[in-house]
Design brief:
single chain; 771 residues; mainly alpha; 35 helices; 5 strands
């Protein structure tokens, strides 16, 4: 396409810098006006701490981002959190400027390029990342910078651009791994368009060298991990530990992937299209897709580059991650599609260019005469997404995470140990303690989703060692139990964990957390009242409406804590009301539904717990905790038949779940299914052979169902001889004595390989009438 004269289409060296700043500065102004003043939720607190201390962030470590963040902490403005948030705003503005230059390459129009870039600046998800401490603005910056360099090489054929592109690709991987799958596309397109480059042998050495030079910043991980900084995620001091951190090995077994079926992939694609329409507003998104068709007509080669990039950064990520279509996964994965939105902005510029040309040709007006109309249309395109998304992205008064962290610290007694279990609690605490210097007496024992062995070793260094050795390399539950029993310090958790074998202490709600107290300790209402009155919140923090996932997690936990307090002191109506508010904020998050239902069941309200627990299983039908809690609630209500499917699922997950075994037997009994009930009772009696009550229950039902003289009733396992227990020991329901350690009996093994109905018929000689 030939460029026409004038500033609207001038591609000279003076125009490109002017366009860059014309796009970047308004974007920067937008982001500054909505910038978060302090720490926010998600990864904000952790990343700010990593930047401030030059520590090691969560995998892959983000060394480049940490170094840039550290430089911004030296600014003599605002809090440390605000300065690091400013990094995201600056990178976002620079990204918008580069996008404008890419649009100029295609449209040859200053005005159209500026409008398209600013429309992207106000898009929902990209804007949200420009006002908090996050790594994704830098990721989109690299994506567009590489695209810009590749297009510049297409025009100029300077080999220095090719080397610089390889360097930037390597450097981009020190920020985020999603640039990895895209690197072959960029370089492959260059060689496809310029096959003669394959005949230059020195490129095979120089390009990898440039790439590795950029990637060399990964040495930050072992170098900074060596002195054991306060934030040392993964402890990547060795080569193997560095590689594990870089390749995100910690998350390998924690992926929320689901099988790739046509239906599951279709659901995710439809959700992407729905959210894509909301990014710019549906009308502008439609214009962007029309621009893709226009691009195919104008420059087919580059159209295919953009199309492949759009496909990889949209459906490519959908296919690769194959995540569940629940609220949490949909929210967390939205940022992976930001490069696709940037490609759409380039297509939007193409559509606008075509519209401008057609309007000019149809109305035969001069450029000066058309400017007011174009300016009005451009303003509509720019301000429509800004106005649509302002409320969602204005973080300028957001102090919720900061308040949440401070009030958790206020809930702790002096010299306490806090073991948080979720990012929205852990990371604000990390920031407040390490960066702001608050509560240095508190030990944050779980920073990374696991308790380091060094926490246990350092805690008892220089002190008389406890009788029991610390469970190094043990599970998180084993380490939590050990700290509660042996640390001699107040221990708090943010989630009520199941800690098998913990008998000396119990977890009781206190303020916003759970306190480990001596079993049987009576809570004092006055202590709780004074603590809640001491909490301080910025105006508006607790009045936010549901809708923002990250903030909803905190607000749900807040109302959950209020509900727990009310239930603790017998105010059931108030407690249920607060738990329902908590569910509104946490709706669609399986853990929240389960925790609320489990709390109600534990407080003696199993009927009220059922809707919460069923909502949890509606999100994930195989969620073990909800299955256990729902089957337990139905067991308490003696609704065994209704609970039978849940008992069976619970047993598939945990075959030793005795309550589910007994519930399964009673469920078949309630449904009058003697064949299945018979074998279910066999499993129960093999698990609890010393229980007279359960044996009488099984014999009574089976005698009634299939006859007193039945060989099956006579074949029930005999009651074992009662053995003498060691002095001081007692028989108990959960401790049936030595027989509990014996292997499961032959009836259970037989049932695993035969259908109950067929087996019953064979044992009874084909007795008619037995179901």
């Amino acid at each position: 396409m030939r460029a026409s004269a004038g500033v609207w289409s001038d591609l000279g060296a003076r125009v490109r810098p002017r366009l860059f700043f014309a796009a970047a500065l308004p974007a920067l102004g937008l982001y500054l006006s909505t910038l978060a003043p302090t720490v926010t939720s998600e990864d904000s607190g952790e990343l700010i701490t990593a930047a401030s201390t030059l520590g090691i962030a969560h995998p892959p470590g983000y060394p480049l981002w940490c170094v840039l963040g550290k430089l911004f902490t030296f600014l003599p403005l605002g809090t440390v959190a605000w300065r690091v948030n400013l990094l995201s705003a600056a990178l976002g503005a620079a990204t918008v400027g580069i996008l404008a230059l890419i649009c100029l390459r295609f449209t040859k129009s200053f005005f159209v390029s500026l409008v398209a870039a600013l429309a992207f600046a106000g898009s929902r998800s990209f804007w949200s990342q420009c006002v908090v401490a996050e790594v994704y603005t830098l990721n989109v910056f690299f994506f567009l910078l590489v695209l810009h360099l590749v297009l510049c090489f297409e025009d100029d054929r300077k080999q220095s651009l090719l080397y610089f592109t390889a360097f930037v690709l390597g450097l981009s991987l020190t920020n985020h791994s999603t640039m990895g799958p895209l690197a072959p596309v960029f370089l492959g397109w260059v060689f496809l368009r310029n096959p003669r480059l394959l005949l230059r042998p020195f490129l095979y050495l120089n390009l990898p060298a440039a790439f590795l030079l950029g990637l060399a910043l990964m040495v930050y991980l072992p170098l900074r991990s060596a002195p054991d900084p306060v934030l040392d995620w993964g402890d990547p001091e060795t080569l193997s530990a560095t590689l594990d951190h870089f390749f995100r090995k910690q998350y390998a077994g924690a992926a929320d992937a689901q099988p790739r079926t046509v239906l599951s992939q279709a659901v995710l694609v439809l959700h992407f299209l729905e959210t894509f329409a909301r990014e710019f507003t549906p009308a502008i998104a439609a214009l962007a897709l029309l621009g893709a068709l226009e691009g195919a007509r104008r420059e087919r080669g580059i159209f295919w580059l953009l199309a492949v990039l759009f496909g990889l950064t949209s459906y490519g990520f959908i296919w690769l991650l194959s995540y569940r279509a629940d609220r949490e996964c949909l929210y967390l994965t939205r940022v992976y599609f930001l490069p696709a939105h940037a490609v759409a902005a380039v297509w939007l510029a193409g559509t606008l260019k075509t519209l401008v040309e057609r309007v000019r040709s149809r109305y035969c007006m001069s450029q000066a005469g058309m400017r007011p109309f174009f300016a009005l249309g451009g303003a509509v395109l720019v301000f429509t997404p800004v106005l649509a998304h302002w409320k969602d992205n204005d973080q300028s008064r957001n102090h919720l995470a900061e308040d949440w962290g401070r009030n958790i610290l206020a809930s702790l007694k002096p010299n306490a140990i806090i073991l948080p279990s979720s990012d929205h609690s852990t990371f604000p605490l990390l920031y407040l303690q390490v960066v702001e210097g608050e509560r240095p007496d508190v030990l944050l024992g779980d920073k990374y989703g696991y308790i380091e062995d060094r926490v246990l070793l350092d805690l008892f260094q220089g002190k008389d060692p406890p009788q029991a050795a610390p469970p190094l390399k043990g599970t998180i539950q084993e380490k939590q139990k050990y700290l509660i029993e042996h640390s001699a310090r107040p221990v708090y958790l943010t989630t009520k964990s199941r800690l098998p074998g913990l008998e000396s202490h119990e977890l009781v709600t206190l303020g916003l957390v759970y306190e480990a107290v001596k079993t049987g300790t009576k809570p004092e209402d006055e202590e709780h009242r004074r603590l809640w009155e001491s909490f301080r919140w910025h105006p508006g923090s607790l009045e936010r409406l549901p809708g923002d996932f990250a903030e909803d997690l905190i607000l749900s936990d807040y109302h959950y804590a209020l509900g727990r307090r009310a239930l603790l002191f017998g105010r059931s109506e108030e407690g249920v009301r607060e738990l329902r508010v908590a569910e509104r904020y946490g709706f669609g998050i399986k853990e929240i539904h389960n925790n609320l239902g489990g709390t109600l069941a534990e407080a003696g309200h199993p009927a009220l717990a059922l809707p919460f627990l069923k909502n949890s299983l509606a999100i994930d039908p195989e969620y073990d905790m909800a299955l256990r809690n729902l089957s337990g609630a139905l067991f308490s209500l003696k609704r065994y038949g209704e609970a039978l499917p849940y008992f069976e699922k619970a047993l598939r997950i945990d075959p030793e779940n005795f309550l589910a075994r007994l519930g399964k037997a009673r469920g078949h009994k309630e449904r009058d299914e003697p064949a299945s009930a018979y074998f279910a009772y066999l499993e129960v009696l093999e698990a609890e052979p010393g229980s007279d009550e359960l044996r009488a229950e099984a014999e009574g039902y089976l005698t009634m169902a299939i006859g007193k003289d039945s060989a099956l009733v006579r074949a029930l396992p005999p009651k074992p001889e009662r053995r003498k227990l060691p002095e001081g020991a007692e028989w108990g329901e959960s401790n049936p004595g030595p027989a509990a350690a014996e292997p499961r009996g032959p009836w259970t093994e037989l049932l695993q390989h035969h259908d109950p109905m067929d087996l019953l018929g064979k044992l009874e000689g084909g007795r008619p009438g037995v179901r």
